[in-house]
Amino acid sequence: MPSTSESMANESVLIVSTNWVGDAVMGMPALQRFRLENPDARITMLTKPATKALWQMHPAVDAIQIMGKPLETARCLRAEGYDCAYIFPNSIRSGFVPWLAGIPRRVAQRGEWRRLMLTDVVPSPNGHQQFEYKAILGVQEALSVPRIKVQQQDVSNVKEMIKQLTGSEVSHFLITLLPGAARGPSKRWPPEHYLKLAIKLRDEMKVVVLLGGGPDDTVSCEQIAKEAGTGIYSLAGKTSVAEWAALLKISDCVVANDSGGMHLATAVGTPVVGIYGLTDTAKTGPLGKSVVLQKSSKRSRDISRSSDEAARALKSIAPVEVFDVVTNLLDKRG
Q: Does 271 reside within a domain?
């Protein structure tokens, strides 16, 4: 499958993005390698609104196209005259739209009932999910860690939010906790564990502790902050995606469940402590600076949202264990 600078020079390339932040971040290393091998190609990312802001922060992307209704989206793509489409998701819709748009070359894994919509079917490789995207894009060299570019204005906005919450500039370590996970209880360390960790960090390390996340995490984060009392604050639901990335970037360490926020933290270069239940970290573990805590010997990529077994595995990880890992990471940072 050609993807050299010579073969892709000046070609118009469409990449169909995955729908979740974590999956999108895991696709970045392959995209970064593709850009290095194809510096003259024009790369457009076809994405749903949820990941638009994320891809706007990635320097390899030249343009963004929103995935809307299939017929309408296909009509827009056809007018752009793309030479090829690389399709990251396995869904039938993600293959149908480029096929309907008449894009001459359509590359993906087999996926669900879409073989006839593809011109090139890529076998699914072993190992981490990032290598699936590497195979689709046809890049050959080793991958780097995911990276996005955070704008200084977003950093300034977040620092101002923190100043309004705390009453002062952050002059010492800042730890951000991300208690949420879109997959539900099967990927969420118990809120009471996050509460105990936040209190221990505040009382024993004298650090600033912030709780972050999206709108769906607002209630749980504010409850933790309320129960913890003075010195622990929530910004969940109060930041844009770009500002959320900025918050993670200025943090000295991030503690998170297996979630989009965890992967986003790796993309801004911040050390991450990832808390896992049954998820197979060999497939979807964090890329970059990270320490994974996981006690269960069982590993799976497909876990029910309400798995009792996964919840028990998460609960078995004590707050003091996470605390020890965080202190060790901060000691290394000086």
A: yes
